[in-house]
Specification:
With 295 residues, the chain is α+β, with helices and mostly antiparallel strands. 43% of the residues lie in helices and 17% in strands. The protein has a 5-stranded antiparallel sheet with strand order 2-3-1-11-12, sandwiched between helices. It has a 3-stranded antiparallel sheet with strand order 6-8-7, covered by helices on one side. Helix 1 crosses helix 3. The N and C termini lie far apart (121 Å).
């Protein structure tokens, strides 16, 4: 029996994903579930020039990955990490930069009802932009402590409307939108990234670059302090070690009164200061010059 040929659209889609993978050193698998057309188009526009986004059926992505695995060893490790509606993102930047760009591309979105709140949804006490009218009853019905004061609609007290992890009630969703509260975050969920045979999961890439730089600085300073303490010589520690040794030798010379061309001045200065201190205790034993010196 002759094997049925794949439809042209499917073959074209497979070729497009394969080309994206083959032409870029960094390949990511992302989840795009829940992202509607307009947000996806906005994200594509914002990321154009930086990355290539190819949304396709899971089996097509799997076929594309397998076809490119020979040229990119280890690429097939991305397959079991696909979850839900997936897409391939191909880029020419390191995985950490790619993760940051995708995070920055995320936007806030209104709730429609039924979604899980990613964090507490709160309202704060104060004036609203609404004029007195039916909106007051609508807010109150949604559980918001609204009232009219001095001709304005106000929220009388802070209140948590939905706890993180709870579902957003359908009746509350339109009210949140009117209050310009957008509790949802829309964007791709990065599952894993491939680069040079290594797979980086999203949790590994989720670092704060500023905090990371601070940690490196602290580690470098700590390493230098330890090296100086134990006398470990490197091109970076040799100068501070010599300076520390010179200070230590000078301190010993001052303490023991050892005279060299470098210590003569400080040693004699210390001796002279000590002599003046002793002389001040027995003023009757001083000659005229010392009396003038001591005032």
């Amino acid at each position: 029996m002759k094997r049925e040929q794949a439809p042209k659209w499917k073959a074209d889609a497979l070729t497009t994903v394969e080309q994206a993978i083959s032409q870029h050193p960094v390949v990511a698998i992302v989840n795009v579930g829940g992202i509607t057309g307009p947000p996806m188009q906005t994200m594509r526009k914002n990321l154009r020039g930086d990355v290539t986004i190819q949304v396709a059926k899971k089996n097509l992505i799997e076929l594309a990955i397998k076809s490119q695995a020979k040229a990119k060893p280890g690429l097939e490790q991305l397959i079991p990490l696909m979850n839900g509606q997936s897409a391939v993102i191909a880029a020419k930047m390191n995985p950490f930069k790619l993760y940051r760009i995708l995070e920055l591309a995320k936007t806030k979105a209104a709730a429609k009802g039924g979604e899980v709140a990613p964090e507490d949804i709160d309202v704060k006490a104060g004036e609203t932009q609404f004029k007195p009218g039916p909106i007051v009853g609508e807010l109150q019905k949604a559980g918001i402590p609204a009232a009219i004061a001095e001709g304005k609609v106000i929220i009388k007290s802070d209140k948590t409307l939905v706890k993180a992890g709870d579902r957003i009630p359908a009746a509350l969703a339109p009210v949140l939108t009117k209050l310009e509260i957008f509790p949802l975050t829309v964007g791709v969920d990065l599952k894993a990234v491939y680069e040079d045979g290594t797979i980086y999961t999203g949790s590994v890439l989720a670092i704060d670059p500023v905090q990371y730089q601070n940690n490196v600085r602290l580690a470098a300073a700590g390493s230098l302090a330890v090296a100086l303490e134990i006398g470990y010589a490197t091109p970076y520690t040799i100068k501070p070690m010599i300076a520390k040794a010179v200070r230590g030798a000078m301190a010993v010379a001052l303490e023991t009164g050892t005279i060299t061309k470098d210590t003569a001045g400080p040693v004699l200065g210390k001796a002279y200061a000590q002599m003046l201190a002793v002389a001040s205790k027995v003023p009757d034993a001083l000659d005229e010059d010392l009396k003038k010196t001591l005032g």
